[in-house]
Amino acid sequence: MRKLLNLLLIVSLLGLASLGSAQETQVLTIRKFSGLATKYDPSETPLEYGQIVRNIRLNRFGTLDKRPLRNVYNATSLGDNPILFAYRFYYGSSKLLIISYSTFLKGGDDSAGTFDADLTSIKTGLTAGEYFQAVTYKDVFYAGNGVNANIHYDGTNIRDWGVDGPGETEMAGSQGDPGSIPDGTYKYQVTFVYDGYQESNPNTDTTSVTIAVDKEIDLAGIPLGTALTNVTARKLYRTQKGGSVYYYLTTIADNVDETYSDDALDGALDTTTTPPSTHYAPEICKYFESHKERIFAAGLLTETSRLYYSAIIKGISYPDIFPADNWIDISPDDGEKIMGIKTDPSGIFVSLNRPRCIKSLLPAPLVNGNYPPPMRAAGC
Fold first, then answer.
1. 228, 237, 180: which is closest to 206 by C-alpha?
2. pLDDT in tens, 133-174
3. Total-model pTM
4. In-domain check, residue 78
């Protein structure tokens, strides 16, 4: 009898799944349905469980509803290239359907149900045929395909994932009006601040200025961040007279002004703050997950067993900053490579290319800022 009832349940569900689009939508409600139980013999499955459910969703009341009919999002075809990635990006009160196809990454306009070529092309020039993975963190869409540069997109501004610095840009420095700075030689560096809080490494070509007694120092050509990368400020650092260590001087709270007049004595410099030196971008990866205020990345072509993770500095998470030593190798001596990352409250799970091999990194305390080696494996 029990076997017959289970069979009827499956047949009923499959019958609903086969309804044509012209038929009226029907709903099947099963009281006290407890979920799927796939490890029972079919003849022993409890009545409140099922083994096969198709085209059905479980609502919050515990009943099974047939999925509603589907609608076409874009009435006009995007061409012959397949859509290899689709992701719903929620940021603030907005939402965007992002897809990849051909060499494009596009965002859909929900009100129009279209992927307009002019208005919503998020990224062009991508390698065709590559699959993306993505994660949303701090209202930002982070994505990569393991081939092209990783992407940081906030719904308006787009840049390569990371916090690129000013590079080799050198500012111009000269002796200015009479002021407070005593005679001597002083050097300057500048960093970019992204998103209001993520700071880059400084420029590599420093500015050196020698002045006479009691003068200001005028800086010009202070580098600007590239448009639509969300550089919100620049920070200036300076040495003390004749020194070689750079200390925090001031913040230019915009991405517009290119000049600054310095009249600060050495004692006014913040000697507790020096420019960062390890604020690197993540490697070009293809698997991503967020867990415990960090983003984890894997799938680098040259380091196939390496798991990278973003920085937490003084209790603040920096998802675009991946210090050079923020990584662990998962079974590097076995020749295995990471094929995916998933998380749940118990830890981080890494799947390897050995069949059914999953290793977990438990949320143990960090050791010297780094995670310990994997502590548990299954099927390996």
1. 237
2. 999 999 999 999 999 999 999 998 999 999 999 999 899 999
3. 0.77
4. no
